[in-house]
Amino acid sequence: MKPLVLSGAILTAAAVGAAHVVIGVRQHRDQCALATADMHARLMADQESRPSRTAMWASQGTMTEEQRVRGLHCNRWFVLWTLQHRLGVVPSAALRHVADDFMQHPQNAEFWGRARDTWTREIRDKTDRRLSRFSTRRTGRGPMTRTSPLTWSALAPDTPPS
After folding, report:
1. Alpha-carbon distance 127 to 80, whole Å?
2. Residue 78 pLDDT
3. Which of 17, 75, 94, 119 has CB atoms 3.0–4.6 Å from 154's, for a disulfide?
4. What's residue 65's pLDDT?
């Protein structure tokens, strides 16, 4: 074999190996994100069903039972939407429509009024920032955006809203 062909083969093998490592790291990160989101969802479901479990959270101490359950439920939606958007399941336009529709309900807007500062402090990336911006615009605590109504088929074509 000629030295030039051999060095080209070695470089190709190295590039393929490096790409494999990068893809493996991304897949591992996505799997960890999914496992963490699943754990978070289970904990929140447990808190919704057992009021005594939320007694440890000072921020929920002044809430009525209805506000507490609704807040936890709203927070679960926010976590789901950010995860879906982060993984590429929900595009930005659909996320904006969801936030618009969700924030039209007064109790959901009330939740966002309470949770906004916490979400803003804990923003991790552009996905969290985007959902925060969309939600804030809809509740009137920022400039409004004009969007068409939410279509559930954009999120889950075969699943009706629950």
Report:
1. 12
2. 87
3. 94
4. 77
